[in-house]
Specification:
It is built from twelve helices and twelve strands. The protein is an alpha/beta fold. The strands form two sheets. Strands 1, 2, 3, 4, 5, 8, 9, 10, 11 and 12 form a ten-stranded parallel beta sheet that branches. A two-stranded antiparallel ribbon has the order 6-7. It is globular and about 60 Å long.
Length: about 350
């Protein structure tokens, strides 16, 4: 079991954005020193949920402030990019980090955010497919030629090429069967969202599609079977279960409010369609469904071991700074996790 970090980098309400950036970059440095595998950062727009809507800028800072930690977006919202410009950005970040870039891609979970950018979410799937095909061609060719429904290029010189060949690994995160199956068909590395029961179904669809394909497109020897199969979990570790739950509850509910900000702003009262991300309505319900884990090192090890066994995962995306969690509480949690939890789940 490898362990990575996930982050939205959301507004806290009690600290300046400059302070939040300083805290997160320091957190990443400490995670790097502790042996975490990768840091994945989300991309969202026009919401306090995400203060790094241009993830490449943030990742450029990470590239120069860490040494071993791999990193990347989870995910670039492809319908919002020029594929040509994004190819160049990926190549730059791969060289800035000396080959530590990991590329998550997606179409965008929020139709409201896409609409703000004048992209109709009904068209976003097809735009995504066309953009993804462009990315692969451009990252692997000396000249980009592509004739798709949305993007057309003819003999564009690819002066910037990634350091990793043929290109950095692609990742896909999903909370539904369609996305999980597509990720397996493409041979991508995969992360599941949602509670344990729901994630189990999607991981099953991913594994079946991956097996039918014959394995991952880019084999990673550090993961059994060559493919990273991950679960995303919000985690707080403290000396006791009571202290961990006391710390986590208000921070997690601040985070849920950020997650629901766009939906509530637009008067959408039901989780439906692209907004159906299958999460609980409060800390307690997310604790029950397995998304939120708070406790002593012993409790956290036990819960992660149980979930990994049920889901068949080999990768954990630990979401350890979220909501308005204080930096001191986050650092203490990271220290306990890296010294008392990580060594005990490494064999999973």
């Amino acid at each position: 079991m490898k362990v990575g970090l996930f982050d939205h980098v959301e507004q806290t309400g009690d600290r300046s954005l400059a302070t939040i950036f300083d805290e997160r970059l320091r957190f990443a440095q400490l995670a790097d020193e502790a042996g975490f595998y990768c840091l994945h950062v989300a991309e969202h727009h026009c919401t306090p949920l995400n203060m790094v809507p241009v993830p490449g800028v943030y990742l450029g800072a990470l590239a120069r402030m860490t040494k071993r930690l791999r990193f990347g977006p989870l995910c670039y919202l492809l319908p919002l990019y020029s594929p040509l410009r994004l190819i160049e950005e990926i190549a730059m970040l791969d060289h800035l980090s000396r080959g530590r870039m990991e590329v998550g891609v997606g179409r965008g979970v929020s139709p409201f955010e896409l609409n703000y950018h004048k992209v109709d979410h009904a068209d976003s799937r097809n735009i995504f497919f066309d953009a993804y095909e462009c990315l692969v061609k451009g990252l692997t060719s000396e000249k980009l030629t592509h004739d798709g429904p949305y993007y057309k290029y003819t003999d564009v010189p690819m002066a910037l090429r990634p350091l990793q060949r043929p290109y950095p690994a692609f990742w896909y995160g999903s909370s539904n069967e369609i996305g999980a199956t597509w990720a397996g068909e493409q041979g991508m590395h995969f992360t599941a969202n949602g509670g344990t029961a729901h994630a189990k179904v999607n991981i099953g669809h991913y594994k079946a599609a991956l097996e039918k394909r014959g394995g991952p497109a880019q084999h990673k020897a550090e993961f059994p079977g060559g493919a990273a199969i991950g679960q995303l979990r919000h985690i707080v570790v403290a000396d006791t279960d009571e202290e961990a739950r006391r710390i986590m509850k208000p921070a997690f509910e601040h985070h849920l409010a950020s997650l629901n900000y766009i939906r509530n702003l637009n008067g959408s009262t039901e989780l439906s369609g692209r907004l159906n991300v299958h999460r609980g309505i409060d800390f307690e319900s997310c604790e029950v469904n397995g998304m939120a884990i708070a406790g002593s090192p012993e409790t956290v090890v036990a819960k992660l071991t149980e979930q990994a066994g049920e889901l068949g995962t080999n990768y954990l995306l630990a979401y350890m700074m979220f909501g308005n969690l204080s930096f001191d509480d986050g650092l203490r949690s990271l220290q306990l996790f890296s010294t008392e939890v990580m060594p005990r789940i490494a064999h999973l």
